[in-house]
Amino acid sequence: MPEIILSINAGSSSVKISVYKTPETGSSTPTQLAEASVEGLTSPPATLKYERGDEKVKDKELENIKTQEDAFRYVLDYLTNDKGLSELSKKEDIRFTCHRVVHGGDYPRSQVIDKETYHHIEELSDLAPLHNAPALDIVRAVADILPTAKNIAYFDSAFHSTLPPYISTYPIDSAVAKKNKLRKYGFHGISYSFITHAVSTFLDKPADQLNIIALHLGSGASACCIKNGKSLDTSMGLTPLAGLPGATRSGSIDPSLMFHFTHSAGKPSRSSSGQLHITQAEEILNKSSGWKALTGTTDFGKISASDREQDQLAFAIFVDRILNYVAPYFTKLDGEVDALVFAGGIGEKGERLRQAVVDGVRCLGFELD
């Protein structure tokens, strides 16, 4: 009998949940039944989007939904009360809950979440305080509300477990680095894994023979050099802050900049708590930088279409930083590249950006398909 799976993606200001049922006999792919998201947790009122077949709810304002756990509980009640979703009539119908967890440390693959796994992810929260905490909030809620469901963590960092030591190692004191787990991890791995399999199917070429330069371009953006289907290098590092700029992230900058920007760089930010240790520098570079700082908006579509000087500057900066990864990755793959792939919301919708990037590396033989 088919069982219900929840796919849960808890962000810093949103919770997205997709409902699947396990494959029927003879199939290997779960069937999606519904999709719900609560957005705007940091800028209330939060809003609900819901889709099940022809049933659609858009931008429904929600009162008293302020945290990821609030959002999860609300969506769960909404799903079980949806008469058109007969497969999920009660909470006990849910057999598996699959969580996207940004930072998995050294875990090379997905893990069933038990006490040991939970505490390992919790320990990594100091490395990714703005990213792992929301996922752990939902994990705790699931354990409370759905005690019979199996919790499984899927890590954005796992795809990059194949990074060679000369790429993952930072040139700092090795004893300190080992003790504090300071190395390049890389993120957006779930996306890059999907890209690899999708390109393999599209080109009808085995994944373990594919060489790809992949660009995941959204509010958070990164690049990945994929050789023989495995991650060889990626732009993000110890945390998702490194590499490309994003909607509110600075991307890579001179590390000493923050000490000139503010004398309080190392002090706790207002977002810190007993469980989370977030410095003012982390807060500024993760939440108050990027396109928002340059243009006043996080909407890259508006930036791309604008003639304002500051918008054009932000657009040019983004293109330049992307090119700073595409060209070196081309050489790391010895010029044997099967595809330059654009993914993520901006990568998929940003026609002008795709054209600008391809124009910038046309000398390497790239052209738009």
UniProtKB/TrEMBL annotation:
Where is region (Disordered) located?
A: 23-47
Sorted alphabetically, which keywords does the UniProt record give? ATP-binding, Kinase, Nucleotide-binding, Transferase
For this protein, the record's PROSITE patterns field holds: ACETATE_KINASE_1, ACETATE_KINASE_2
Q: Which domain of life is it from?
A: Eukaryota
Q: Name one GO molecular function term.
A: ATP binding
Biased composition regions of type Polar residues, renumbered to the chain? 24-34
One of its GO biological process terms is: acetate metabolic process
User: Which NCBIfam families does the UniProt entry name for this protein?
Assistant: ackA
Write the protein's name: Acetate kinase
Question: What is the originating organism of this protein?
Answer: Dothidotthia symphoricarpi CBS 119687
